[in-house]
């Protein structure tokens, strides 16, 4: 049971950068030690923490807590009690203690800085060097000889070389559609020389195109810069090896997205604005949707002046060059590569090689413009090193890959033929009703077909129009696909056991006799006739969207759940066949297009040749390492691959990635990664783990007891726990009640809109709480209060809406397009999502950089394979599989610990310190016990194994006894991290710490106010909340400036105060009806003025002379006037304006 223990005050002193002295007060609950003589520690809300043996190895000995910790603990108890959590039983986790690798610095912060610098190696220095260096001029003539040619700009000499000689290169590859994915030409440039590479196949020196581009094994660390460089990397010979090539790839597309990328909400408005600027006008008829988005955005910001349109661009090289370099690119030559044959490429070689070289030149110019901005946005070396690691993904396959492709194609063809036969049978059965008008008119499905028979038609004489339209006269057979309009009718589909019906305005609907209308529940009627009411089949995009095809992929789960059905066996079989093919149909192009290189074409893959028909292959995922504004990686196939399902052809895709003989795939999924990140940011306001309801449920909630977050949501909404997960993650990412309403109506067809809205409102009231929308309170801010997640949402919004949003751990900045100074308060959903997902990217980068450090430090035979958001996989030799597993556990422990440490909580819950299990497997799959049985794979795949941290430690202890090792990871070697000069490290730490606030803990009054549903504001202007953007203001203090951000009432419904770097006091205007002036004004009088309304003009408000030296208008230029009043225009009719201190 939860209970508070007597506090023991330990007053200690501990120095931290930019932190003050304080006293430390800790509550400990001690239990009997295990055989390792470790101590189990529990915090005030009974969250089990790391044992003291592990804690002292990770956190500083004299970590501090605030003197008011007792009050914070009491507030946490009250909050948990209000949320019906206090007193719930919790499970005790077995304690563990073992010798960890010693930190390379004095604390976690310094440790990660050191290993980040170490893993960046010389790549960082090279990246800085090339950013201030120009490329030489391009050669006037290009060689056609195969292989590499080097062009010396000083001597004008060109010579054949085996590979580029320099360690810094900008690189671009060209392929031709007619040839395949293999490279046919490439260019590269360094500050010293230009290079060209020509495939031996291009001019007939080879009879096959399977040639890769050699970069040589120089043993040096080299960087290769490219735009979407993952595509170019997949054509480099040395990358097809299980050992590292020491090539580091820098992607200017990823750098641009991280600095100036657009979120999905912004793209339509951005494209419309760019067209308006370039053309002057855009057709409203062809771009109505885009304009509506544009207009809604424009209402809340001064479009074209300091807006996100001016600081962002799309991601293509052409767009990026225009944005960063203000240069236009001609990409027309690319058409030859896309549409032409090999002969066309040969004839236009000079044009195409220059086109390729121009891409290199422009990529370098973009890089020079981007690097300073990127380094400022992502200043921590761990972010840079993590990006390099992510760009080195590798997947190993064997002969089973080709079998998988053949089996999937064949099975799909078999089912497709069977489906065609079924649909043709149904069509022929329907055709037999020609002339039997009474029968087909009574049929609720067939009556919707066009039964008109044209007496003058020669072909298919006497056949109805619907049959004639479906008949392929050239093939002399019926061709009816599941995408055709008549297929659902021939299949006689039912929705909730009612016939479906197509209405032009509303898409696919279902109809119910008027006499039985109560069977529709609360579903909204969209049409009616004499006999039936018509109801729309729901769409994932909500009530306004129409169902275009009820057999489409998005509706398969309705078929599986019995909502979509048919009473005819043939129809049910057809639906089942369609369901089995759905995954393959949507994914086959990407899967069949995978660029696989086999050991027949590469002399050395670092793998032993397979006997007989066996062979080794490697796939390099063409990763965009920072492919979204949250800096998440993007890749079309492997990062979106589903898990194997028994009724999905080809869904065993991931399991076709198989470890070569002598190797294992070692990996783990981070448990509730983004949920934990969100909750700990909320807990940080109290200063300890599990202080908020969300934090406690994340750490201690039990599925069996119904006290975890997903179970709570399921109870509120009356849905399954699995479905509740969707609602929870969507809410944490910033989705509102509107989205929850739409989702509820999808999951429960009986809900009408009003009932769904009510349930969604109940969910958000219980979780987010009430919103204090006025800023006329002692905290000078709007905030959530009284919900299980109020603390978390306030903390996330504090980060998302501050002047310079940065992730709280590594200090990575948000893209310019979402910064408040350019986007106002628009796109709050995307910004909340950015805080969570970008912090999760920090987590991933920290973990893989920690792994890389441990692999080097303990000489572990393993390398990074792939990361899919919260999953990581490594290719490890069998002899080092358990060392790799323990290294993963330690990397996760360090990463979680730094999150806690940076958020001001110098401890870590035992529940999240380690992975619940690390999988050691011979194939890539979600769980090692999945057999991956599918229609295309009838044979079980042998199971792998999962190891908890306890089992891994036990395995390595046995090995240590045999080997005589002092450490579980074996004997270590000294690495660069521990040798870096302290003075440089301290200086860099201070620079990084200046980017983030000193503390995430908020003042007690504000902590208390977030707890309750009922909040009564205390209008004391000297009080403030915890936001970094707010300052104390005295009513009597002289006001020098007014600063104000635009308000997005539709999305945030709150006023935002903008701070400044200097000490000027801030004041802003707010109309009584809640809206605000659209431009800033400056006050030159210290007294708070009063405003009178004009009798002559009801839309004008008059301000005494001397109060303002500029009036609010679209053009903020100050205007002087001799008149005694200045007017401030506003379209609506406010009665007064109030001064509000901020």
- Helix amount, in percent? 25-40%
Number of E-state strands: 35
**Uncertain regions spanning at least 5 consecutive residues:** 1-40, 281-305, 1021-1142
CATH class of the domain at 131-262 and 312-377: Alpha Beta
- Known CATH architecture of the domain at 131-262 and 312-377: 2-Layer Sandwich
Please report the distance between the alpha carbons of the first and last residues.
44 Å
Strand order, sheet with most strands: 6-5-9-8-7-10-11
Per DSSP, the total helix count is: 33
Q: What characterizes the major β-sheet?
A: 7 strands, mixed
Proportion of residues in β-strands? 5-15%
How much is the average pLDDT? 83
Computed over alpha carbons, the radius of gyration is 33 Å
Task: Give the overall shape.
Answer: globular
CATH fold call of the domain at 131-262 and 312-377: Nucleotidyltransferase, domain 5
Structural class: alpha+beta
GO biological process, one term: mitochondrial DNA replication
Keywords: DNA-directed DNA polymerase, Nucleotidyltransferase, Transferase
InterPro entries: DNA-dir_DNA_pol_A_CS, DNA-dir_DNA_pol_A_mt, DNA-dir_DNA_pol_A_palm_dom, DNA/RNA_pol_sf, DNApol_Exo, RNaseH-like_sf
Pfam families: DNA_pol_A, DNApol_Exo
Please provide a written account of the structure.
One of its GO terms (molecular function) is DNA-directed DNA polymerase activity. Residues 1117-1142 are annotated as: Disordered. With 1142 residues, this protein is α+β, with helices and mostly antiparallel strands. A hairpin with a 4-residue loop joins β8 (183-189) and β9. It has a seven-stranded mixed sheet. Among the domains are: 131-262 and 312-377, Nucleotidyltransferase, domain 5, CATH 3.30.420; 267-310, no CATH class; 401-502 and 546-586, no CATH class; 1031-1142, no CATH class. The protein is built from 33 helices and 35 strands.
